[in-house]
Each structure stands twice: as structure tokens, then as C-alpha cells.
């Protein structure tokens, strides 16, 4: 597979030699890598992707941000994120691929899973290092999931849903303990809603006032709120999302720079180039050359 293209995988295309499920896959990391050697190159998924490392070294890049691979780390990726990895020797652990709709038949609230902090779509927030006790508990849950994946017992999918939700709650509690701030719940709701709106409208809406109107707050309040929660203004968060999509598109050498500028709603190629260089320090052409 060429590194100059971002391949998008669905769950069925990453099966493990058994009848492929369109909803979920759980596997040991060593078996998964052996079955799919090409997935070390940059790619994206149409599903939620989780990786839990119990041993080994290397690096994992999510949306162009690099993280070290270490024992006890969990990586959570939402559909559409671009990632790749480089391992030094043998790596052990577990991997889960699960469709966005897997829990919909089980939960009344279709957006429930999105509320966990590691599914924000922000790379750094999707990386959680577990202490030893939590790491052992999560590994035990993965082992139970592997049993259920091969089970012919009734309600095996429901057991998988329960085990995965239990894992999400355990990991979320660890992540929340690491956050020393005690924010009121409505702050997290507003932040999640803002990020969701940015994800939906960043191609067309570039100004904080547009999102403030949709959220029924003032632009000044939205900027102050974002600085408090994330250390960035609302405008910076919108801009970062545009830059991220530009990088994702630039990996594919079959798409011209002018086409990317058009897709991202820039007036022309020159404006896009100036925007990209101002915030990334290189032109789109230079970025493409360096990443290939």
C-alpha cells in the first residue's frame, strides 16, 4: 500500500479469518498485526478503533501527533481519524474495532458513547495511561470479550456491549482522576456541543460568532469558555480543525492543492497556501513532500 494515499478500512475488511462481523472485532494485537501487516501505514477507519498495549515499544501517530507506545496505554480513535504506528520488536495487547451503531440497539441515547472524554476526536485526549490495577482490570475485560467473540451462547453481543461499556467507564474514571479540575457537568456538555458543531460545519462556518449563535451564548463568552477549558480560543479550535483536514487531504497526492483549497472553502489556492504556511510554517507542497 502506498503511503501517499489514506486508505479507509471498514470492519469487514479487517476480519481475522472467521466470518466477518459488520459491527465488532476483538483480537490480540500480535494476531491482528500478523493478519494485517499493511496497517502500519497511515490509514483511517469507518468505525471506532481501540488499542490497548500490555508490552512493547514504539510510536503511534494519530492525526499527525506522535505518542510513545508503552505498557498500560490505551488509544481511542473515532471514525475518520488518520493514524499509523511504528513498533520496536514484539508488541502485545488487544485491539477492538466497533461500529458507531453497535450500541444503538442497546441504549436509548444514541450519543451516549460520544460523551466519554476519550472519544472527543482530539488525539491527546484519546490516549490514556492506566495504573497497574486498572490495567489488569481492563486486560481481564478484554479476555472476557475474546471469549464472547467466539461464543455461540445466546446474548453474546449483549455481553460484549456490557463488557465494553464497563471498560469505558473504568477508563473514564482514570482519565477524570488525572484531570485535577472539578468542572460542573454543564461545562462538559457545552464543550461537547461546540466541538460537535465545529465537526459538522468547519467547512462553511469559520467565525466564533457563528457557533456562539448556534449555542445561544455570546462570542466573548464562547472564547473565554474555550480558553478556560482548553487553553485555546474558539477561533483557534475552528482553525485547528481546518488545518487537520487540510493535512489529511494533502497525504493523497492524487488531489491537487487547488482542489483541496476548493474543498475547504478557500477563495483560491493562494489564500489557502498563505493560511497553511502561517500556522504550519511550511507550504502545502512542502508538507506533502515531507510526509510522503
Automatic annotation (TrEMBL):
Record's InterPro entries? AraC-bd, Homeodomain-like_sf, HTH-like, HTH_AraC, RmlC-like_jellyroll, Tscrpt_reg_AraC-type_HTH
Q: Where are the transmembrane segments?
A: none
Q: Which organism is it from?
A: Chitinophaga qingshengii
- Asked whether the UniProt record includes Ribosomal protein among its keywords, one would answer no
Protein name as catalogued: Helix-turn-helix domain-containing protein
Could you confirm whether the keyword Transcription regulation appears in this record?
yes
Keywords from UniProt, A to Z, are:
DNA-binding, Transcription, Transcription regulation
Q: Which PANTHER family match?
A: ARAC-FAMILY TRANSCRIPTIONAL REGULATOR, TRANSCRIPTIONAL REGULATORY PROTEIN
Where are the annotated coiled coils located?
A: none
Q: Which residues form the HTH araC/xylS-type domain?
A: 192-290
Amino acid at each position: 500500500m502506498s503511503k501517499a494515499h489514506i486508505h479507509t478500512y471498514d470492519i469487514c475488511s479487517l476480519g481475522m479469518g472467521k466470518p466477518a462481523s459488520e459491527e465488532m472485532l476483538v483480537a490480540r494485537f500480535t494476531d491482528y498485526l500478523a493478519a494485517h501487516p499493511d496497517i502500519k501505514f497511515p490509514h483511517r477507519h469507518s468505525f471506532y478503533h481501540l488499542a490497548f498495549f500490555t508490552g512493547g515499544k514504539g510510536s503511534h501517530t494519530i492525526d499527525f501527533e506522535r505518542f510513545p507506545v508503552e505498557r498500560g496505554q490505551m488509544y481511542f480513535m473515532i471514525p475518520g481519524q488518520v493514524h499509523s504506528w511504528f513498533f520496536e520488536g514484539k508488541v502485545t495487547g488487544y485491539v477492538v474495532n466497533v461500529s458507531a451503531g453497535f450500541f444503538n440497539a442497546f441504549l436509548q441515547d444514541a450519543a451516549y458513547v460520544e460523551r466519554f472524554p476519550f472519544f472527543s476526536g482530539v488525539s491527546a485526549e484519546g490516549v490514556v495511561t492506566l495504573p497497574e490495577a486498572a490495567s489488569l482490570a481492563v486486560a481481564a475485560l478484554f479476555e472476557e470479550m475474546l471469549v464472547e467473540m467466539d461464543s455461540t451462547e445466546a446474548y453474546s453481543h449483549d455481553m460484549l456491549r456490557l463488557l465494553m461499556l464497563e471498560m469505558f467507564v473504568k477508563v473514564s474514571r482514570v482519565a477524570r482522576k488525572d484531570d485535577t479540575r472539578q468542572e460542573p457537568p454543564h461545562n462538559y456538555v457545552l464543550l461537547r456541543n461546540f466541538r460537535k458543531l465545529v465537526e459538522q460545519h468547519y467547512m462553511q462556518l469559520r467565525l466564533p460568532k457563528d457557533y456562539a449563535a448556534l449555542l445561544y451564548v455570546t462570542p466573548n463568552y464562547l472564547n473565554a469558555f474555550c480558553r478556560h477549558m482548553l487553553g485555546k480560543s474558539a477561533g483557534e479550535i475552528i482553525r485547528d480543525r481546518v488545518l487537520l483536514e487540510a493535512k489529511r487531504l494533502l497525504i493523497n497526492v492524487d488531489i491537487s492543492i487547488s482542489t483541496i483549497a476548493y474543498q475547504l472553502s478557500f477563495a483560491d489556492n493562494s489564500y489557502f497556501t498563505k493560511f497553511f504556511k502561517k500556522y504550519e510554517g511550511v507550504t502545502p507542497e512542502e508538507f506533502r513532500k515531507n510526509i510522503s
